[in-house]
Amino acid sequence: MLSEYWKQFKSGTDIRAVAMDGVDGEPCTLTDEVVERIIAAFACWLSEKAGKSCAELTVSVGRDSRLSGPRIRDAVARALSACGIRVLDCGLSSTPAMFMTTIDLGCDGAVQITASHHPWHRNGLKFFLPNGGIEGSDVTAILEKAQVGEKPTPAAGVIEKVPYMVQYASRLRELIVKESDNGEKPLSGMHIVVDAGNGAGGFYASEVLAPLGADISGSQFLDPDGSFPNHIPNPENPDAMASVCAAVKAVNADLGVIFDTDVDRAGCVGADGREINRNRLVALASAIALEGNEGGTIVTDSITSTGLKTFIEKTLGGVHCRFKRGYKNVINEALRLNAEGINAPLAIETSGHAALRDNYFLDDGAYLSTKIIIKAVQLGKVGKTLDDLIAALPEPAEGREIRYTITEPDFKVYGERVLHDLETYAAEQGWQVADDSREGVRVSFPKDNGDGWFLLRLSVHDPVMPLNVESDTAGGCDIILSQLAPFIEKQTALRRK
């Protein structure tokens, strides 16, 4: 069992913690000593998993632009090489690229130093094997080894610098040339704005788009800066999206692309400056993924809109599997369906995590953006745009997310009880509870009584219950919330954040 001390480092399938002092009340806990103990434990775990001695292992290491990245990179490389492992230092890298080193460079494992969209003072570790990212149970096993100080017999490994991002960018360029069938400069005449948010995604403008003829003027925040001086690199952040939308309009670009810090998520902006994000991004990715996969299943998270389900099933002729929040959850569900012989080409969250079967079910913002750009080129040849592809998507009039903190110590037990009681309450009210909800309680309301739905669910890792509400009519969210209010008011351990 993990102690409370070691448990603090586990965040789903990642390691995350405070990596720099500078925020009151949040001292640095991801110290060199902690990193080296975790990495030594990872070396033991990987050796067992791969059936190889440490001297036979090759592990790649990359990092995003966070200020603590170089320090942690040094600690990771030092700990791996001290176990006799061959270390490939890939420098500034995207998270998806680090997985691809297990394919292209034959690495037995990969470590990416990132905390995704979290604040500047936090950082973390993500681990990959050749079959994908490791599971939460694997992270627990590694931390249990770190807790008891398990480490391999000391040996002398080597550290080699490998500029893998050059190869990764080349792969994306080759894909655009091949699939767009528009010559060696297939993006000539296209104006694409990239917003990297000072994360690791700046390469996409200079190393992928520009060499293929794209006009990338107006692109912004391409230089890595872990203090994130302009906006949070996060497609879900309203300020970040407003910034890239404004940049697209300012230069009359054809398309905008925005990445999160480590480029495993992306969002887009149309030529009109309107964001293609959340449900609109899921719709666009679904339209692309279902080409050649007629009748295929699209796996999404739980908070997708009613209109999106209609679009996937009625307009695209696919099947919508509304699953759970968490990119690893939707990916694993798509993998399960395919293993059962069900055609599921895409797993995608409204957050921008998108994993396509033709890309190893790797959630890769740069790959998704590449597929979208290819489709834009193809549509342009026949006088159409990306907006035409999702024009039939019914969109809600309004939506909200309210987050409640659980004050009970055993938050999971309390949260599950709330959801059980809500199901009973919904039945008493005669509400329509969704029969395809695989997470929380989702209730739909008719046109004359809110014209929408709510979903109350329990966070997997935190003492939080998010409540998502959507309506196809202005003012409908208030109507729905007013009906739910008597139930929420009786939940004494829920506090609105």
Brief rundown of the structure:
A hairpin with a 2-residue loop joins strand 6 (122-129) and strand 7 (132-133).
Any overview of this molecule?
With 497 residues, this protein is α+β, with helices and mostly antiparallel strands. The chain has 3 domains: 159 residues, Alpha-D-Glucose-1,6-Bisphosphate, subunit A, domain 3 (Alpha-D-Glucose-1,6-Bisphosphate, Chain A, domain 3), CATH 3.40.120.10; 108 residues, 3-Layer(aba) Sandwich (Alpha-D-Glucose-1,6-Bisphosphate, Chain A, domain 3), CATH 3.40.120.10; 99 residues, TATA-Binding Protein (2-Layer Sandwich), CATH 3.30.310. 37% of the residues lie in helices and 20% in strands. Strands 1, 2, 3, 4, 5, 6, 7 and 8 form an 8-stranded mixed β-sheet that branches. A 6-stranded antiparallel β-sheet has the order 19-20-21-22-18-23, with helices on one face. Helix 2 packs across helix 3 and helix 6 packs across helix 7. The longest helix is centred in the N-terminal third of the chain and has 19 residues. The mean pLDDT is 96.
List keywords for this structure.
497 residues; alpha+beta; Alpha-D-Glucose-1,6-Bisphosphate, Chain A, domain 3; TATA-Binding Protein; 3 domains; 20% strand; globular
